[in-house]
Write a structure and sequence with these properties.
heterodimer, A: 190 residues, alpha+beta, Rieske Iron-sulfur Protein, 2 domains, seven-stranded antiparallel beta sheet, four-stranded antiparallel beta sheet, elongated, B: 261 residues, mainly alpha, 2 strands, 2% strand
């Protein structure tokens, strides 16, 4: 009846003349010319959604908190270990053998260098023997039989100056084949 | 451009490409039909859809929403399974860890909200189907499939309710499973159960009735938690997935999405 705009009407926003949006508005439906834009927008949205979801799912697989034994731990006083023996008290909990010799101590990581099994210490044969494929190591950790390609790794070992306890840090490993067993952190001089 | 054309030809004529897209470039009507029929995704879509079938005011899109929420529940539930262990030692702390420590603590909330939304959506879908008369022949079989799917949705909610293993969960399932005592002929307190006896020995007692089978014991415990977990994550979703396949298939075969026939 009249052209007056009532309070309930929204003043129409005029799209750019001749643009795809204007055509859609005029005809009230998707036109041949506007279709590629609609299609592109739809594909972009889908790609963004799938990409976003995929990254969320991927991130979800990486836990923020690990329920694993800590890498650093205190292993008591050097006097707690007897000379010439391979000590297995930390094997189950932290995966470490502590070996004390006449004048030094070192911490061997209990992971076979062949395929990652846990070897056994055989006191009667004075060697480490892996049950999976038969790799054998001397008490020093040097490999001498079976498929193991290199010696066992040694963990960082130090003395806590505050209470005199042994500090083991498994996150630092020393490789014999790289000549790292002469590093001062790879053994304790007693 | 000649180079580009030869590269394109090289790709389209390669064995890898041909093994995936059997028909080639769909540039004739015959090839277009074959391309659609030969594709799992494309053939799911009906050849034609009624105008009323895509009108939101007619369908409310509640069936589609229910299915979408089922997919949301499947995906979020699958992710939750990476962190949740159904044992009385770990269940509750794993739920707390999912909220506090695992990446995207909202994942469990999404699963929970999605579950509530799915129950609502399924009810609304049923209401719409009833109000539009879409349950009438030849769709009466599909209505029955839908009713079973509604029950499975409620059972999914019920079994999932125990998994947080908090006080709310344990007592809710205690109350809920006590209702199984009243199953006719299968619960100790149900009608007709007392008739099933050999001489003086009752066949239905607290050690072999419906409730016992449901909670794997005489009270809620570790066995119940494991049983509900398996029902919630494997048995009921598989059953629901199978019935949904039938449900969607029958929608197509019974004349398409709702609307007057």
């Amino acid at each position: 009846m009249s052209e007056e705009i009532t309070p309930y009407q929204v003043a129409p926003k005029t799209p750019l003349a001749g643009s795809a949006a204007a055509e859609i508005r005029e005809q009230g439906e998707i036109t041949r010319r506007s279709f590629p834009f609609v299609l592109t927008a739809a594909w972009l949205l889908l790609t963004a959604a799938v990409g976003g979801l995929a990254s969320i799912f991927g991130r979800f697989l990486f836990p923020n908190v690990l329920f694993e034994p800590v890498q650093k731990f205190k292993a008591g006083l050097p006097g707690d270990y007897s000379v010439g023996e391979v000590d297995e008290r930390w094997k189950d909990k932290y995966g470490i053998w502590i070996v004390r010799t006449e004048d030094s101590m070192y911490a061997l990581i209990t992971i076979c260098t062949h395929l990652g099994c846990t070897p056994n210490w055989l006191p009667s044969q004075n060697k480490f023997k892996c049950p999976c494929h038969g790799s054998g190591y001397y008490k020093t950790g040097i490999n001498f039989e079976g498929p193991a390609p290199r010696p066992l790794e040694r963990a960082k070992i130090a003395i806590d100056t505050a209470d005199g306890q042994i500090l083991i840090d498994k996150s630092v490993a020393f490789h014999q084949e790289r000549g790292e067993w002469t590093h001062p952190d790879s053994f304790l001089k007693l | 451009m000649a180079n580009l054309k030869s590269v394109q030809d090289g790709i389209v004529n390669s064995q890898i490409w041909k093994s995936i897209f059997r028909v080639g470039i769909p540039n004739t009507n015959r090839k277009r039909v074959l391309a659609v029929l030969g594709s799992l995704i494309l053939h799911l879509h009906p050849v034609k859809v009624r105008r009323s079938g895509v009108r939101m005011s007619y369908t409310w899109c509640m069936g589609g929403t229910s299915f979408f929420l089922f997919l949301v529940e499947t995906v979020t539930g699958l992710l939750l399974m990476f962190y949740y262990r159904p044992t009385i030692e770990y269940a509750f702390t794993d739920i707390m860890d999912l909220r506090e420590q695992a990446p995207f603590g909202i994942m469990r909330e999404m699963h929970r909200w999605g579950a509530h939304a799915m129950v609502i959506a399924v009810w609304l879908h049923m209401f719409r189907v009833f109000m539009t008369g879409s349950y009438k022949p030849p769709r009466e079989f599909n209505w029955n499939v839908g009713v079973i799917l509604l029950v499975l949705t409620l059972l999914l909610s019920f079994t999932g309710y125990l998994l947080p293993w908090d006080q709310l969960a344990i007592w809710a399932i205690t109350v809920g499973s006590n209702m199984a005592r009243a199953s006719p002929g299968a619960g100790t307190e149900g009608p007709m159960s007392s008739l099933l006896k050999l001489g003086d020995v009752p066949l239905i007692h607290s050690g072999d009735d419906a409730r016992f089978a449901l909670i794997a014991g005489k009270s809620i415990g570790a066995a119940t938690l494991l049983r509900f977990y398996v029902l919630h994550c494997v048995v009921i979703p598989l059953a629901a997935g199978f019935l949904m396949a039938i449900h969607f298939w029958r929608v197509r075969k019974d004349g398409g999405i709702s609307g007057p026939l």
